[in-house]
């Protein structure tokens, strides 16, 4: 797993119940602000294996970005069950429900201290 992927997985895993983060926000916190699409790929390929709370990740407008209707409804249901509220336009107020992990969640990715 690359250092960026490790950071992305750690950040997503740490999103608390009832909060959301955006793909771009996760990419920026993981050290690559322009890698939102890479976050999408990581989330898609690793959410089941890593047991990530995939439903807590939305797009920059606070909208569910999944085109598949069944999956979108599943994500919406999960978020509502955690207390996240949707606005009339279907978006989530990121000021109220957004999560900003700050630097405390960043991993020490110095290869000389990597314990696997």
UniProtKB/TrEMBL annotation:
The keyword DNA damage applies. Gene3D superfamilies: Winged helix-like DNA-binding domain superfamily/Winged helix DNA-binding domain (1.10.10.10). Residues 3-80 form the Methylated-DNA-[protein]-cysteine S-methyltransferase DNA binding domain. It comes from the Bacteria. Keywords: DNA damage, Methyltransferase, Transferase. GO terms for molecular function: methyltransferase activity. This is Methylated-DNA-protein-cysteine methyltransferase-like protein. Transmembrane segments: none annotated. One of its GO terms (biological process) is methylation.
